[in-house]
């Protein structure tokens, strides 16, 4: 019997070293005020939020055996079904510095061979009967072909699975050719793909509708403080969050994806899904670290979300 849960795939996980300081002085010694080192990667972040919301979730991907323990411990502590594989080496460390804005330094991913890829594909095959909703998120390590997401999405589509896809650059451009069920670019990523500056909701809707005509069912566009746009063939919903104190934007987009996945799993209406997902994302920027720390706060903010339907 199929589980009422969600599976996530993170092809390029990382340990995120995050730090906060008032401002960055280039060429000088900068003293970090607050720091943390935690397992991350877009799919890992999605898994954490879903687990906090009591959703059965399985997480897979490829880790380096030298520092895989941090991810294994995370899965155990968050009650995430740990389906990660290991390869020789270290999972990369990414550095994210929050001052007036978040500056990120993303390092190259783990190198692994075809044998490890085959093991991952066997793991996905084993999980297929148990999960109908799959989240595929993040970048690809350099050792994989740039169209690898196309292969995975096509395989999941062929088995009748619904894929929520969140990537950027060439992996995003190649992956959407497989027509995933839902994609979640931010405004900048969609602009890069389209080769246009897409600042207005109207321009974003136009490009989203073109993607839908090509076979993608849902296009969700995140716009930071300007909210979220959700476009289908027949509807377009816009969610505007209230102003909140921003501490860190790290993981906010992944939290939005988790909220959308949760609502879709529960078969809620677009308005219900957008309201909760946008509130979750708004709460995410008020904290350091990824996860639902105060669901009462999420509920409070959800009532302040402004929802608008475009004709």
From TrEMBL:
Superkingdom of origin organism: Bacteria
All copies of domain Carbohydrate kinase PfkB, residue ranges: 12-291
InterPro entries the UniProt entry points to: 1-PFruKinase, Carboh/pur_kinase_PfkB_CS, PfkB_dom, Ribokinase-like, Tagatose/fructose_Pkinase
Record function comment: Catalyzes the ATP-dependent phosphorylation of fructose-l-phosphate to fructose-l,6-bisphosphate.
Reactions accelerated catalytically: beta-D-fructose 1-phosphate + ATP = beta-D-fructose 1,6-bisphosphate + ADP + H(+)
Naturally occurring in which organism (per UniProt): Zooshikella harenae
Cell wall biogenesis/degradation among keywords: no
Signal peptide: none
A Pfam family annotated for this UniProt entry: PfkB
MF annotations from Gene Ontology: 1-phosphofructokinase activity
Name of the molecule in the record: Phosphofructokinase
Similarity comment: Belongs to the carbohydrate kinase PfkB family.
Keyword annotations: ATP-binding, Kinase, Nucleotide-binding, Transferase
